[in-house]
Every structure is written in structure tokens, then in C-alpha cells.
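Hi V.,

You were right to ask for the full record rather than a summary. Here it is.
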Amino acid sequence: MDIAAPEETSRQAVHRAAALLRSGKLVAFPTETVYGLGADATDDRAVAAIFEAKARPSFNPLIVHVADPDAADAIAEWSELADRLAVRFWPGPLTLILRRRPESSISKLVSAGGDTLALRAPSHPLAAALLHQVELPIAAPSANRSGRISPTTADHVRHDLGDRVDLVLDGGACPVGVESTVLDITADQPVLLRPGGVARAEVEAVIGRPLAAPPAAAGSELRSPGRLESHYAPRHPLRLNARDVRADEALLAFGPGPLSGARVTVNLSSTGDLTEAAANLFSMLHDLDRQEIAGIAAMPIPATGLGEAICDRLMRAAAP
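Predicted structure:
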């Protein structure tokens, strides 16, 4: 694995990354949410390499990163609602599910053979520069092995994927820290498929009505990543809404009154700030997972604002 360190000029690093992507290679790069494992979304072989590197099931679709709404409109059926949402939230942590254009060049592997595409325009400066340099849509799930804790630093990518990646652009820690919100707008009623870096209330304020709940994943086509029951999982067992903690456990605390008695304690936010907690979530789970402990106990977190995304990630991380 080659890592383009922060001291390398951004222009040089992005130029190298773009050349590798155009030649069908895999490049991990920072976004404002988590690090993505990128490949040319129009190249079947390159997209297949993402699934192989992650050991990801082929039925689990990928998000395609684009530079702007014009690039999205070229491959998917743009709409007035998509335009309103993009004006408010792009570039940023909102993914839109749209109908694929019949003439779209995007690999069918990206959408697991379905007729929709998951699209977003990231706001991280390195991601944005890479998209403008490569002039291609980039398919990019999180840069980790399938089902494991998402990476928010280049070091997380290195530890999890190693030489499965040709280059990692090191852009430091991801500021949002949880994946994008995924919104299906292919029908009359928009559906929240995955809570994430844009809070539900913010989206509802733009569309002017409540978001619908997603269908049961087991009985429907997967249009979004992050919907499998078990996901984001540490090696150690994780238990939720802990009111006590054992001496052989680590504590994932939240708020000003952490439980006492844990072997190791980290606090997502000692002030109860959900934005800070989201930014710390995966990084702290990575740190705890390297400890010699019997398990991780997570204190309750309110499921409001960004807390909805945090609770979603913890629920799936704790699933069998």
C-alpha cells in the first residue's frame, strides 16, 4: 500500500490518485464522512475489485461520488426535488437514490443489477479535487473490510485493507465521522434508507413533509449500503444502553457522567454534543477494539439529530 502523506502537496497526490483510478486501480480517499475505497464507476473490472478487496457481498450496492449536480444528471434522472436537496446539501453528506438513465455508463455491479443509482457530491477538499481531476464518477464504499468498523483516518484503512489498496490519500481525520444520509426520491414519498451526516429534520425542512420509513431489508431490493442487520462491527462484543459496566469491559461513554469501573473508558462527548460524538464514534470504536478486553459497553445516546445515525451504527455493530 502506498500512502500519500499530508506533507505531499495536494496537487501531486491528487494527480497520482487520478492516474491510478483511470487505469482501473483502487484508491482510498477521505471524505467528510469516512474514508472511501474508490474505483472508476464505469469500469466493471475496477468495481469488481472493490467487492473483492472488501470481501463485500455483490448484492450490497455502492455509492457513486460525483463532482456536482451536472455530473449526476448525466448518469441519473435528475428531478426538481433532487435539485432542491442538492442546492441545500451538496456538496455534503447526503446521498440521493435516483433512477439510472438508460444510456448511463455506470457499471451494473455498482447497483447490484438494479435500476437506481446512489449518488452524492462530497465536500472534503481532497475528494472534490480528485473528482474534478479524474473527470469520472467514482464508486466508493467505506475503505474497510465488509461489515467491520468504518475508517475515519488513513491509519484505519492501512490496518484493515493493507495492500488491497493501491494508494491512500491521507487527509487527516474525517470531520463528520459517520456515513452519509441516504434518501430514496424515486417515488412520490421520499424514503430515509439510512440516517447519517444530515439529520432527518434538516431534510424534512427542505421537502416539507415527513420522510417515510424504509421497507424491510429482507423483503426488498437493497438500494442503499448500510442496511444489513450486522454492520460496522468491532471484534469484541458490543452491548448497548449500558447502565453498568464490568471490570473486564471497555466503556463507550456519552455525557458528563460516565459509568465507573471499566478497564478502559473513552467518552464520545463529555458535554453531550452529538456532533462531537458522531465525529468520534468510529475512531473510538477502533481504539477500543485494539484493547485486551472482554467486550464494549455503550452508554445510552439520544436518537435525535445526529444521534439517530449514531444509534443506527451502534445497533448494527451490536447485532450478531
